Amino acid sequence: MSTGNIYETITEIAKRRGFFWPSFEIYGNIAGFTTYGDVGVKLKRNIEAQWRESFVRRQGFFEIEDPIVNSSKVFEASGHLANFKEYAASCSQCGRGFRADHLIEEKTGMEHVEAQGGDAIKRLLVENNIKCPVCGGALKEPTLVLTMFQTQIGATGTEVGYMRPEAAQGMFTNFKRCYQANRERIPFAISQQGKVLRNEVSPRRGMHRLREFTIMELELFFDPQNPACPWFKDVEEEKVRLYTEEMEEKGAKEPLEITIKEAVAKGLVITEWQGYFMGVGKRFMQSLGVPPERQQFRAHLPQERSHYSSQTFDHEVYTKSWGWIEVAGHANRTDYDLKAHQKGSGVDMSVLRKDGTRFIPHVIEPSYGADRLMFVAMETAYELRETAKEKRTIFRFPRNLAPYQVSVQPLVTKDGLPEKAMTVYDTVLAEGYRAVFDDGGSIGRRYARQDEIGTPLAVTIDYTTMEKGIITIRERDSWEQVTVHVDELPARLHAYFRGAEFRSLGQLVVRGAE
RNA sequence: GCGACUGUAGUCUAGUGGUUAGGAUUCUGGCCUUCCAAGCCAGUAACCCGGGUUCAAAUCCCGGCGGUCGCACCA
What we know:
Blueprint: H1 6-17, E1 20-22, E2 34-36, H2 38-57, E3 62-63, E4 69-71, H3 72-78, H4 80-83, E5 85-90, E6 97-99, H5 100-108, H6 118-127, E7 143-146, E8 150-153, E9 159-163, H7 168-173, H8 175-181, E10 188-197, E11 212-222, H9 232-235, E12 239-243, H10 245-250, E13 256-259, H11 260-265, H12 272-287, E14 295-299, E15 311-319, E16 323-334, H13 336-345, E17 351-352, E18 358-359, E19 362-369, H14 370-381, E20 382-386, E21 391-395, E22 406-410, H15 417-430, E23 435-437, H16 443-453, E24 457-461, H17 463-468, E25 470-475, E26 481-485, H18 489-497, E27 507-508
Parallel strand pairs: 3-10, 12-14, 22-23, 22-24
Antiparallel strand pairs: 1-2, 4-9, 5-6, 5-7, 8-9, 10-11, 11-19, 12-13, 14-15, 15-16, 16-19, 17-18, 20-21, 24-25, 25-26, 26-27
Helix pairs in contact: 2-12, 2-14, 3-13, 5-6
The structure holds one RNA strand.
């Protein structure tokens, strides 16, 4: 067991138990790529399912699945090809690399130099006689750093494609078909979960910044003249911890605690829809185990915002490993993207109002990163429990988030107990639960193993099972046990995973008093 | 991308020019075992990659790749 910090401890367990590990290990790793193991895949899928439950299913929103490799035309139109560039200048003398636009800004006091484009940056570097800030050497001509992965489509390689850096463009380029499938009603939303790729300059901290990761995005299309959200009441009383743009500028240390309702009423959050999704996002995060006091929303200052956004709040979560980290962006993308694709493709993206006028829908986008959330879920659930004899790792995942829900095991591996346990295991599987059978080592060892992958319940078959059909259910969090007849097991599992108290499942076992 | 530190079984580590590369733990098999990593026996399993120095490199040097931290970056 590592004596290091919680991040090291979790990554160690992750490798050992099969949550995740660095990709391409046998050939030497490449930073920014992660492979999920069995329990990791299951945990991640459960997070994705929970997101879908929170953001899509209840509202009846749409889902799509769009290619990862996109036509270059998509990103020409969206502005990514122009905005995903970074100009880096390196020193001919000491070899150090710098952001060319930042050097210009330092020297001249200009702002947003990057937006002026590469030619301007090259010219400004020369005009202002900018040298290496470390050794004073001459700077080489700036080189373009594109943070989108480029590829060739087809054998001839004449068609250039790009790996999508966000899933959102699929919702915009397919907007018209989805709108029609929704019988031309608005507001409505299109969502997508999928892999996206960003060729990060410097991936760090494992899951925190990956080059290939899973994004969970939703684009809500609405009429700016009718910006009401019909579900707003569901979340309006939710309190959120908020840093407004003004607070950010002043460097406020403590967030505003405010209900969604007030935040929208006071204009701190511009639209009801954005407020709604922030409230949904807060609840979603709670469903992953993150309490409200470890969540906050932080406004982007204008110069921080993406090229498409008029207002953005990062949804941040406090982690022991890294402090506050961004797990989502809640952006007001206005009509930027649909307009851009209308211009790029020549296809009319406007929709018809009842009064006969036409408009291009505005868009609110909540965008969550699944991989970061998986780490957050693990860190939040992590407990090191000290007993008289040892230190035990427990992942106290919310019941339905756990990779496996039930483990089944014989108390001892003789006298027909393993065979009986196998029939119980089959029953649990037939009921649809994610279950694991374990007959290795002692009973204590098996409980410890299940604690370490966060399995909420363990079902043990002992001699009373053979005699009377009574089994023991043991709970991960409390280490308490109840007994129940094996015929009752499916109903009790059902109750537990719908939220029933553990002790209500059966007769509480008191060891040592027997 | 820059700097500092760093890379030994699945995991954690000892070893710092010549070792059968040691230990702990996990894991597998066996014995045992009527509820929390018990015990006993056996077994599998490692020097990040590529050059160089040397009679000899896990050990020293250079480069690459990875990791941690700091700076920068995070559209």
